[in-house]
């Protein structure tokens, strides 16, 4: 049997009913973690838990915009499992695409409330549980390539993800004293229900676009790739990594695609 990298650990995953969150719930459970999957998509969340097994995964309703619900979800996790070793704060929304000249500030506020305030609430209450129990935990937040460059998503989404990277760094600076690591993952376009709905694309269109824009060819970005990055940051294999934003984008955010590069035909090369 392959090594289970999270054996004996308890993980709380927000946004765990679909997309990246669901894939991470499944992967963490495969690697021995006991998982509480939190979301507002109750039917889907219960289906995910049932498909994996109630001995491994429990679903719990939580709207991260409501701090009381976040606090209650952490309490539920502690009452069920006695500890929290891993927080994957993954819940987020894209928000509507609009011109900055016509931006709906109510929608902007909702995006910030979910993507920034909601994450702050999950960090606050999960970290309090870790500190009180002297657990050297791992906190992971889902950001985006929109956290480093503009023009890849709605304005509110881009602003929220930039803010989230700052929050991760700030939380890292304080929680390191308790042995708690705080990191983030910045994916490029993954064909999740969130991205498909936000851009009015079918999954194949999202994947085709990501493949066309990424520098790294021959790989199609899947939710599983992001889940594997979260697994690394949750496991002891990253025990001295904190304050890091792990970008999973095939080189998209660091390569100037205007550079006049003509690919070489591999058939023209002779091995040295």
From TrEMBL:
Top-level taxon of origin: Eukaryota
InterPro entries (alphabetical): NAD(P)-bd_dom_sf (IPR036291), SDR_fam (IPR002347)
Family that this chain belongs to: Belongs to the short-chain dehydrogenases/reductases (SDR) family.
Protein name listed in UniProt: Short-chain dehydrogenase reductase 3b-like
